[in-house]
TrEMBL record:
Keywords: DNA-binding, Transcription, Transcription regulation. The keyword Transcription applies. Belongs to the BlaI transcriptional regulatory family. The keyword Nucleotide-binding does not apply. This is CopY/TcrY family copper transport repressor. It holds the Pfam family Penicillinase_R. It comes from the Bacteria.
Amino acid sequence: MEEKYHITDSEWEIMRVVWANDEVTSNFVFEVLGEKMNWKRTTVKTLLNRLLERKILKKREIGNKYLYSTEYTEKEVAQIYILGTFKKICDTKVGKMIACVIENSELSFDDLEIILKAVEVKKESAVSKVLCKCLKGQCNCEKNGHLHI
Ligand SMILES: [Zn+2]
């Protein structure tokens, strides 16, 4: 999956309904989310269409209804979503941000084993210094001694 699959918070709400129910109608999504999100029926249709246009959702017609579903798993889309967020911050800050995510998440011993394993593997390709690749003027890394490339 590419960058174009990065989805907005509103689209994410829709996708959760699709993942939980496999196939949904626009009415069903409205019943689940209308009140919570303060959406009109037309809002749901607009969001479904945006996801269709980007081929994150597909639809099939049954009678006079459209059924929406997805070929993507929650894990795949969540990965794009989370990695996309990390791309928005300076590369030199990603490591500390990952530590912050760990500190602020509820994790099991099994989760920690997975994380430790990932850290061990990553050690083999770690660099001595992460370079800032930000646009000049969008980052103050240089002041902190980091180099632009
Ligand atoms: Zn930077």
